[in-house]
Amino acid sequence: MADTTMKKTYITHMPDKPGALLRAVDIISRLGINITRVSYNKSLDTNTLFIDVCGDAEKIEEASEHLSGLGYLSEGSNAEIILLEFKLEDKAGTLRPVLELIESRNFNISYINSQSEGGDCQHFKMGLYVDDPSVIKDFLDSAARFCEVRILNYDRIEKNLDNTVFYITFANSISEKFSFDRAQMNCLLSDSNRIMMLLEEQNEPPLKTFEAVEKYAGFIAASRGENFTPRISRFDFPDFTVHVVEPACGSNISVIEKGGRLLFVDTGFAIYENEMKKALESAIPGFSGMDKECIISHADIDHCGLLHWFDKVWVSRTSYENFRLENAKENNFREQNPLHEPHCHIMKLMSEYSPPDLSRLCIINEQEPDLTQPLSFIGVFEFEGLKFDVYEGAGGHAKGEIVAKGSNNDLLITGDILVNAKGFLPEQAEFNLLSPYLMTSVNMDSTLASAERRAVVSLAKSSNSFVLPGHGTPFRLGER
To answer: pTM above the 0.85 mark?
Structure first.
C-alpha cells in the first residue's frame, strides 16, 4: 500500500479572542494529525500563526476544509512556507549574504534558529513566508552559489522533478553519506539526470531513478566501519587454501594461499580498503607480512578498487588497454557505452575508485584472442606451482574478461561470466538488482554473455570443478 503521509504548513489567520487556537488544535488532533510546530510572527500579522502538521494526506485535506469553514485560512492565497537550513562558515559576516538575498526577494522570516557544531560551520534554520512560490527556484539557485542549502519541509513526491528543491535535497542526502564537495555533487546530479533521461525512454518513472541512486548510495555507505560484515569462507585443498570474502556491496575477493604467498582474484570496492584489510588479517594469520599478487577477472570498478596493494597485477591485454584509457582521463570500454557511462561515473565517485598504476600491470596474453568465439585461449598463468589455462571472453559482460581453468587443480575462476546468484546473501541480492536497472543491463551484449556462460561450463575439466565466481559463494560445478 502506498504511503500517503505528508507534511503541510497551515498559515492561519485567527481572531483575537480566547479559544481560537484551541479550536484549530481540536480539529487537527481529532483527525489523528500530528502538530510538529507552531510559530507566531507578529511582524507579518498579529493574528497570523504557522502550524506545521504531519499525517495522512486525506485527513489533512479534511482538516483544511474545517479550518477554511472557520475562516482561519486565506482563500485563494498562493503563499507558502518553506523551511530551510543554511550551512555557513562560523565566522563574522557569513549570515549577511543570506539575509540580503531573503530581503531582495521580499520573503519574510517566520522562524529562525541557529546551532553551532563546535567546528568551523554553523547551521541556520529558517522558515520563510513566500507570497509568490514561483520565485523559490531562483532564490535557491542563488543561495546555493555561496553556501550549502537543505530543504527540511519539502515533500518531493508533490513537486516537479526539475524543481531546484528536489535536486538540492537529493544531492545533500547523498553528500552527507560521502562528504562530497560541490563539484562532486554537481557530477552526481549530472549523471543521475542522464540515467533518468535514458530510463524515461523506456517509460520508467523519473522519480524511480533518483530513488535507485539513493538506495545504491545507502547500501555502500551503510556497509562501512563496524557495519562491514562480509561472509568469509575457507576452503582447504590438498596443497593450498582458498579464502573468500563476500561483502554486501562489490565483488567477491578470493585469496589463494600457498607456500606462504597469496594470490588475490579481484579486490572489491576501494571504499572498503580499511575494512577489507581488517577482515583479511582476521581470516589469514600473518596476512600483513605475506607476499601478495593479484589476477583480475575483468576491469569493472567493483572488482578493481584495491589494485594499489600489489606490485604485480595480472591482466588481459584488453583490460590493460581499459586502464590505459582511464589513466589518460578518457572513457574506459564500459563507459564508451552511453547506457553504462553515467552509472560508472557515479560508481567511481561513491566507491572512491582510481585507476591502477600501469607499471604494476603484467599482461597475460601469449596470443591474441579469437573474438569470433565466446572464449578463446590466450595464455598460461602460474602461481606457486598452480597452473591455469587462461581464456578471454568475447566481451559479453565486459571487454577483456577472462576465465582461468586449473590445468593441475580443480579451480575455475569465472569472474562475472558465471556468478552464483542462488548463493547471494539477502543484502547482496538486493544491492545487485540496482546496477542492472541503472545501466539497463550489466552486460555489454547479453546474447554473447549467455554464449560465454555455456562455453565456461563446456570448458570445465569436470563437474567437480570448484568455481570461484565474481559474486556469490563458491560452488562445485555439478552442484549448480
So the answer is: no
